[in-house]
Amino acid sequence: MPKIKRETKTARSQRVAHILEALDREYGTELICYLNHETPWQLLIAVILSAQCTDARVNIVTADLFQKYPSLEAFAAADVKEMEQDIHSIGFYHNKAKNIILCARDLLERFSGEVPESLEDLTSLAGVGRKTANVIRGNVYHVPSIVVDTHVKRISRKLGLTLEEEPEKVEYDLMKVLPKDHWILWNIHIITLGRTVCTARKPKCGECFLKEYCPSCEEPVVFDGGKAR
Predict the structure, then answer these.
(1) Domain that residue 24 falls in
(2) Which of 40, 42, 57, 95 has a 20 to 30 A CA-CA distance from 209?
(3) How confident is the model over 105-152, as pLDDT tens digits?
(4) Which residues are the active-site residues?
(5) What is the pTM of this model?
């Protein structure tokens, strides 16, 4: 775990501000969704499929899936065994096939075919947890939301912004230290960083533009009053 000595609340706020400035400068501030979709319900299905799977693989599968099932009604009427074959190349396809069909039926029967906005309504849908709900709230309704995936949890811990392992607790910690206007961007930026620089197997600390603000860098920086030395 990162070791931060004598970091005051003010110092942490200053360090977080530097981190966000560096991320914005490197990656921009455009809200990007890596999952291909044309409608909110397509995004919802894509996010359900994305659990424990890469966005690139999901996009390959949904390219055919959304042509075969062009409406929520088509998904709701789908045969679960056939759906399993349609998404067979994605992990946990048994549960995902069942949940996608049940979710489509829920949307039609309970929400008139509309993807709901509230966290409570979204998490009441089959296959939808807090992470999936926050993706929808952020990308569809532009509600400030923090999405905690494996990259966000791992790198937020490396940066010393949380000590938690449970995604929901990580989310709450990040809500305390990140300004709302960067809640959605944090996921977008950290996914990019985690895929290219701060990789899980071999982080490229020497190349990282956040190294002077990261206590997990190979040569840890001691922060004193918000200044690295």
Answers:
(1) 9-30+147-228
(2) 57
(3) 999 999 999 999 999 999 999 999 999 999 999 999 999 999 999 999
(4) 131, 149
(5) 0.83
